[in-house]
Write a structure and sequence with these properties.
2 domains; Aspartate Aminotransferase, domain 2; binds pyridoxal-5'-phosphate; Aspartate Aminotransferase, domain 1; globular; 14 helices; about 400 residues; four-stranded mixed sheet; alpha/beta
Length: about 400
């Protein structure tokens, strides 16, 4: 039995599974936009860990920061008690990039935990209980975050785990009339500025502004989930600045940790301050803001800033669109920067593409709420030659559909 066969068998026997059909591609190492099997077969990573590896796999600056911090110290004490330089420096630098009043960074472990913290903070601040989310939204898999998956599509996942959070209503993203459902009873509205797992749905002209206005009118807090869109993915450091709308709370994770598990919810000092009293310890976390993860995230942020690659993300996305968009099998491309859905109009075609991609050395994926499109969201470090080469492979697969 080969080493890979042994690995596959042990994986199925001893590692908890998320689906009956895992990809099971063995990973030996990863560098830049590629990962490699033990036999050395390269794969273009067009998923980037679902918008995690924005600075490329094995980014030397991130690896060095991880090593340095691991040598100094790893975990000392639960979040929020000690003066930890990687946390303080990262919070300071991220706050400097965000529009006012987003200045107070509460570090957590993951996207779902950032969403949980943000929802709790909004309830605590407004003393209201109702929460509005968007249909076909994905915000994480914990009870609170899962409750935010809008109906009707989210029902399939949610029904098996009820009861979930009460008082949640979902509205259609980009539906201006539905904003009337946000009222003085609403604690907060949770929204991805570009919907990711819905199959990449950018906001309609003026929609986020109208949403902002309605939240301000009613006193509901606006929470942006920038877990997929943050850290340069849409062509600006944050989608909120690209679309010109500032939320009351923003959730970050995924690329925020530079490849390590890290999340945050960020608000004004005044709003954030409510979590420290009445009751004290309103949200607590042991590993939130782990110093090694903060060091990695900070190194990734500095890499993005120093290299200026974010400014080139829109052009790179447009190049992919130009190369692939004209193929007769492609019905539509929905895109914001390098967050891209290639719509085939058929789940059967999409799954056949996945099979061809696996043998041709491409890792792509479909979307939780859209299995008729495949994803192109590579590391932002991808260069033009790699875009052209991977687009050639994609075109050849499309020809065979
Ligand atoms: C928009 C969005 N929010 C939240 C999450 C949940 O993040 P995590 O898996 O780190 O809990 C995801 C994960 O895919 C996401 O795409």
């Amino acid at each position: 039995m080969s080493n890979t066969e042994i690995l596959r068998r042990r994986f199925l026997e001893h590692v908890g599974q998320t689906s009956p059909s895992p990809l099971m591609i063995p990973v030996a190492r990863a560098e830049g936009v590629f990962f490699y099997t033990p036999e050395g077969k390269p794969y273009y990573d067009l998923v980037a860990g679902v918008s995690v590896n924005n600075v490329g796999h094995g980014n030397p600056e991130v690896v060095e920061a991880v090593k340095r911090q691991a040598e100094r110290y790893m975990h000392v004490m639960v979040y929020g008690e000690m003066l930890e330089p990687p946390q303080v420096e990262y919070a300071t630098e991220i706050a400097a990039l965000l529009p006012q009043p987003l200045e107070s960074v509460y570090f957590v472990n993951s996207g779902a935990e950032a969403v949980e913290g943000a929802l709790k903070l909004a309830k605590r601040w407004t003393r209201r209980a109702e929460i509005v989310s968007m249909r076909r939204a994905y915000h994480g898999s914990t009870h609170g975050a899962m409750s935010m998956m809008g109906e009707p599509e989210g029902e399939e996942w949610k029904n098996a785990f009820r009861p979930l959070l009460p008082g949640v209503r979902s509205i259609e993203f980009n539906d201006f009339d539905a904003l009337a459902e946000i009222t003085e009873r609403t604690a907060c509205v949770l929204c991805e500025p570009v919907q990711g797992e819905a199959g990449v749905r950018p906001p309609a002209e003026g929609y986020l502004e109208a949403l902002r206005r309605r939240c301000t009118e009613t006193g509901a807090l606006l929470i942006f989930d920038e877990i997929q869109t943050g850290m340069g993915r849409t062509g600006e450091m944050f989608a909120m600045t690209k679309y010109g709308v500032t939320p009351d709370i923003v959730c970050l994770a995924k690329a925020f940790g530079g490849g390590m598990p890290l999340g945050a919810f960020i608000a004004s000092r005044e709003v954030m301050g409510t979590l420290q009293c009445d009751p004290v310890l309103g949200h607590i976390t042991t590993f939130g803001g782990h110093p090694v993860c903060c060091a990695a995230g900070l190194a990734a942020l500095r890499f993005l800033q120093r290299t200026g690659i974010v400014a080139d993300v829109e052009r790179k996305g447009a190049l992919y669109e130009e190369l692939i968009g004209g193929h007769p099998q492609v019905k539509e491309i929905r895109r914001s920067g390098l967050l891209m859905a290639v719509e085939l109009g058929s789940s059967d075609k999409m799954f056949r593409m996945m099979e061809m991609f696996a043998s041709e050395g491409i890792l792509s994926d479909w979307f939780l709420f859209c299995d008729t499109a495949f994803r192109i969201s590579p590391p932002l470090t991808i260069d033009d030659a790699q875009i052209r080469d991977s687009a050639d492979i994609i075109l050849k697969c499309l020809d065979r559909l």
